[in-house]
Every structure is written in structure tokens, then in C-alpha cells.
Amino acid sequence: MVSRQTLVVTGFVLAALPTAYLVELVTGQFVLSFFALLAVGVGAPSLLNDYLDSREGGQNGV
What we know:
Layout: H1 4-27, H2 30-55
């Protein structure tokens, strides 16, 4: 069975790739696309999982 955290991370990682490509296409700067990749692929799922864990009362041992 796949956990909610894994689904959230997978969804955001899959969304991060086209987002980074679009940022590169619009701005023409690799650095901005790299930061978009990090923000959407790493930062956003971490923040969302932390928020959802806190709403559940930290039942996952966190």
C-alpha cells in the first residue's frame, strides 16, 4: 500500500519537471528553472506533508 506522503511527493515531482521546463522556456534562464524544480519538487511536498501531518495530530510518529 502506498502512503499519502509518497503520493504527494510523486505528484509534485511529476509536476516539477514540466514546471521547470516552462520556466526555462519563458525566462531563458537555467538558474530560475533549477530553483523552480527545487521549489516544486522538494519544497512544496515537504511543506504540504508537514501541514497534513500536523492536521492529523502527528499520528505518524513525527
